[in-house]
Write a structure and sequence with these properties.
With about 200 residues, the protein is α+β, with helices and mostly antiparallel strands. Helices cover about 45% and strands about 20% of the residues. It has 3 domains: about 60 residues, Nucleic acid-binding proteins (OB fold (Dihydrolipoamide Acetyltransferase, E2P)), CATH 2.40.50.140; about 70 residues, DNA polymerase, domain 1; about 45 residues, Helicase, Ruva Protein, domain 3. A hairpin with a 3-residue loop joins strand 1 and strand 2.
């Protein structure tokens, strides 16, 4: 199995690139975010690889960062999510945003990906909500734990009433909790979250 490729970028397409490794061109499917980070043809690149072997094909999926590859594997564990759909999700949500979306049960953000409808988005959230807790976020701020009736849950609700998307509310409330602590009052959490959203 191929786990990593280092070579020169030969070309890119809408959903894939060709990496030249010692004169052999490997076709690697990748998210829009990874493809955008590769640079121009001729640039030296290193990609983390997930190899999928099927009866009719061997496909390589490439990732600029290991956490993106880990989320790809996690998404594949959900029934109905194949490699292309997982890449579509990772094209609209970076790993940290996907983590927050799952924790906040923000199916709307996940459903923005091509090929993901409301039912599949709900299944992704339901199946990954417990597994996602084992992942650490790149930014180091975990999604807030929103127990019903808690200050965090009330702060998330207040921001939703102000028009915040669940993903954005989760992110700024998590940052507020990181700054002022779990025991903060609802008003303080909302005030700090609003300040952070304005940056």
């Amino acid at each position: 199995m191929i786990a990593k490729l280092t070579g020169l970028l030969d070309s890119t397409a809408a959903d894939a690139c060709v990496i030249d490794v010692g004169g052999v061109g490997y076709l690697v499917f990748a998210s829009a975010k990874t493809l955008g980070a590769l640079g121009t043809a001729g640039a030296a690149v290193t990609l983390h690889i997930e190899t999928q072997v099927r009866e009719d094909a061997i496909q390589l999926f490439g990732f600029a960062a290991a956490d993106e590859r880990d989320w790809f594997r996690l998404l594949l564990s959900v029934q109905g999510v194949g490699g292309r759909v997982a890449l579509a999700i990772l094209s609209v949500l970076v790993p940290g945003d996907l983590h927050h979306a799952v924790a906040a049960k923000d199916t709307a953000s996940i459903a923005r990906a091509n090929g993901v409808g409301p039912k599949l988005a709900a299944r992704i959230v339901n199946e990954l909500k417990d597994k996602a807790g084992t992942f650490t976020l790149s930014a180091g701020i975990a999604p807030p734990s929103a127990t019903p009736g808690s200050a965090v849950a009330d702060a998330l609700s207040a921001l939703a009433n102000l028009g915040f998307r669940p993903l954005d509310a989760s992110r700024v409330v998590a940052a507020a909790v990181a700054e002022i602590g779990d025991g903060a009052a609802v008003g303080d959490l909302v005030r700090v979250a609003l300040r952070k959203s304005a940056r």
